[in-house]
Amino acid sequence: MVTRDRRDGDEQRVVNEALALLRALPEVAGSEAASAALGELARRVDPARVGKAQRFAEASKLVNASLDVEAVVRNSLRVAIEVMDAERGFIILRDGRVAAVHGMERSALDGEGESGARAVALRALEGGEPVFTTDPPADAPRSLVAPIVPLHVRSIACVPLRVRGGTVGAIYLDSRNAPGLFAGGDRETLASFTHQAALAIENARMFEQERERAARISALQAFQTRILEAIANGVITLSAKREITTFNRAAETTFGIASDQMNGKSALAIGASIPEFPELLDTFFSSGAVSLRAEVEAERTDGKPLVLEIRLSPLAGLDGTGVAIVVTDVTQQRKLEEAHAAEVQKAERIQESFSRYLAPHVVDSLVHDPDSIRLGGERSRATMFFADVRGFTSMAATLPPERVVEILNGYFEEAVRIVFQHEGLLDKFYGDGVMAVFGPPRVRENDAARAVAAAIALHDVVAELGPRINYPLEISVGLATGVVVAGHFGSAKRMDYTVIGDAVNLASGLQSAAPAGAIYCDAETIAAAGPISRPLRRLAARIKGRSELVTAYAILRE
């Protein structure tokens, strides 16, 4: 207490000297009222309180010298301890965290030893009213007697840190030796200081929040920049004033322009690379600033032509609606697509050309799996179809070769059309004849019926063909049904898809035996074909290579 008494004496001397100077002023010395007022002032002034107020005022500079919350809290507690001559103390914040401690164990504030001090601080923090005791527990609030007794203290001061109508924390001070330490004007002085301390803490907290917010914004902007740089597509953003605000690295690569040459410029600068861009931008805004997608031709700064897909989307901002533009370079993709389309078209032409020489299913196998074509055959049931022009020898002898070729091509055109129309397989042309297969490689129950229908249709077409080609053309057709071997025959260097079997020879023989305009079928074909729309006549035909007559059926004209 020697230090405190000496300090009080110094403060008393300062006050007395100040009053003496005032009394010596001519204006005061000549006025009884002024002298009386000074006397009353000298009687009422508490020099110790004045000194504390002065020291608090000077210490407030230290409290407000930092914008770090922890530093402000520590400085506030230190000033309060020193000026109020407290022995111990701590500051608790509104989140319940003990932020600064003097003379007490921080960990003990949550335990048995100092839990009473925490209870006093929480009462001031939650109730918003200060707690002062000068001789606890005698003058302590009844609700705090039990928590205070274990502390063995003589004086307690706990004042909430209030600012702008709210409480940011509470400051707790006590002394285990000096009773009545926080009495009289000390309470008002301490309350005044805590208001300044609360204001400093809140300002530091707000500054820290703004600093964190600025750091988050900065980190977000950096993250956004990294994202924009990592995006493979070009990204360009325009402000509401139609000025370029973003031009990412992919856009730089696409157009061959550095971003610092584009940022801040008018959107019309993009028109130097995309001539259609100004018109697209006007269309985007005139249509209500909804999403717009287009594929345009463009040009790099080095003159390289580009094909770009651009998408315009609205971009809301504080100053209005801007535009986000995503640019995708599809130049190479379009070239590949064009090349692919050309290859497909070329393949289709080749396939079409080969189909004129090979069976369609053979061509399909070659296109989809070139290795699938191998020598060998499989047994299957088929109806063989042979058609031959009658009188071809005399026609070839009497007509020019070019005319003969013209007549045959006209006939073959119709013959192939009818075979395909009835889903037959054209095997080959032999001189003036046609060989077709109804069955392999896809055998069906109506193979014979389709072969008969094709033969009838071919006779009808040939009858109509004569006037068109200006030549009386006649044919004969032979049909036979049986088991054949169908497959690829020949050598590894040269092979044909055809069929081999007795039905092949029989159909060929029946065609040779049939007169002009006739269709000869074997009995098995008639049985498999079902009802036939034309009249039938049973006959015995002599077939080359067979010693016995063959039972056959002639399909007659209507």
Describe the protein's architecture and organization:
The structure is a single chain. This protein is α+β, with helices and mostly antiparallel strands and 558 residues long. The protein has four domains: 1-45; 48-207, Beta-Lactamase (2-Layer Sandwich), CATH 3.30.450; 231-329, PAS domain (Beta-Lactamase, 2-Layer Sandwich), CATH 3.30.450.20; 374-555, 2-Layer Sandwich (Alpha-Beta Plaits). It has 17 helices and 18 strands. Strands 11, 12, 13, 14, 15, 16, 17 and 18 form an eight-stranded mixed beta sheet that branches. A five-stranded antiparallel beta sheet has the order 2-1-5-4-3, sandwiched between helices. Strand 4 and strand 5 form a beta hairpin. Helix 1 packs antiparallel against helix 3 (32-44). It is elongated and about 165 Å long.
